[in-house]
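Friendly challenge for the regulars: who can give me the structure tokens for this chain first? No prize, just bragging rights.
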Amino acid sequence: MKLASLAVGLGLSAAAVLVVPGSGATASMTAGVIVDKARPVANKYLQQKLNWRRCGDEELRTYCAKIAAPRDWANQYAGNDIQLAVSKVTPAHGKPSRVVFGNPGGPGGAGLGMAPYLASQAPLAKDHLAVGFDPRGTGDSTNVTCQGTPGYTMDARDRDSWNLELISQASKLAQPYCDGQSRGLLPYLTTGQTVQDIDLIRQLLGFDKIDFVGYSGGTWMGAYYQTYFPQHVGRFVLDSNTDFTKPWLDTFAAQPAAFQRRFEQDFATWAAKYDDKLHLGMTSRQVVRNYEKLRAALKKQPVVEEFLEASVRITYDQNTLDDMISGDMYTKLDFYSLALDLAFLRGLSETQTKSGPQAAQRTVDALSPARQQELVRRAHRSTVGMPSLGDDYESATFTAITCNDTEWPQGREYADQLAGRIGPRNPLIGWSMNENPCFYWDRPRLNLPEPTGAGLPTTLMVQSQNDPATNYTLAADAHHRYAGSRLLTITGEGDHGVYGGVNKCADRIINAFLTTGRTPATDVSCRGEGIPAPSTPEPVGTEGGEAAGAPTGSPLRRVAGFTTAISGYLH
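First reply, four minutes later:
Bragging rights claimed.
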């Protein structure tokens, strides 16, 4: 997930939608809207035959197919069909007795890799058909683009009127750019449309109920599937939770405090503990102060360097630094690489200040090719859980869904005051709260039904205490309002995306739930396993997955690696 896709990729809450006194903000929803609902599927979609073909290396045992679905589920006979890319992995022995769907979040993250990822979990692989899919708008499904939309290259901390106006104008231009290139699909990129796509896939696969594992923005998707299709709900795991009981704004407004906590309490404390190796500061407060000093230096004089024999140019400025840090908060496995990059960048900036740009370039040229490649890879990497597929499908879908689904207060005044309220306490990403097209978005005249959990089987919610992208308060608040849910808390931990290798205790509880239906009698917690001591960073290329076998790294990074490995075979 984003703002920061839920990230800044997987990257957003106020306890309620924040109302800025005197803002004059008005809701983007006009009068006369209707509440969406599930609709019966036309026979032409139920009678289609699926052509499954192998996608990816044989060791992944993954097959993919395209499914036709209506562009608008409220008008199934309009003739504007879209295509949904679906993946599956069957048990190695025997027929599956259950089916488990997965979604990596975003919202808008391509999810074909969820099938081989879920199948790599040994307890699930025994009798579950594992299913992944690219949601409408992204990946190998019919997709959208916002390419060419002006970016936010200004410094969000600058509160001059001219700078705030630039941010506002860039935000206003997003919808025209997206809509003009997306062949009329943009208004139909909503969670309500997507969950009806999921239920079509369920029916074509021949299962009465589905189990579900959703990460980050996928928790929102899972809760809404339960709301639209309660009769088809099996065992649902919602991992790293949005507050799906409230508007998107609540989830995004909670992100800055969570990122700041993760940076200060987890990363800075860890870096200070190993100052003899990392040299970033002897206390967590000193680590944070040194970040602020480096940020000011890069804003005053950005560092522009050429890597890999001048084939790649990277500009390091204050925004690059903020993106680097926030992007590495999702998984503790990135902490050491971040520490190395911060020390390198500080030295590079100091060299440029003292001896000039040419001396700084000589510092880069003296690095080994492997280290240069690593710096280039990290400078261009995607948010955890959002694989790099060479286009902006995922970020475009993210924007459309978050802006279309729920109401947003409209206008620059509200957006600027919100950023001004959150930024001083949470400067890492808080000042950028006004960098969001949703404050200017003309959304469909449609409300989603409210998720309450009433009448559902037990939902297992999983959350790390210091998760940066989905604040722990979101899970706690949604849990209290979602009937029958259980909350599994990972204490002393902050990784975004838990199930599948972050915590052995949590994996045991989640696997027991998914394979037997056994749920904790009450809310339960597992102790975090701690941040590894500084060591050799992950080898170059682990983020993209391996051609054969399971990608390595954090759960969402592994999902992204699988998605990269099996995408493109349906073209």
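The chain has 19 helices and 16 strands. Residues 242 and 474 are 6 Å apart (CA to CA). Your move, everyone else.
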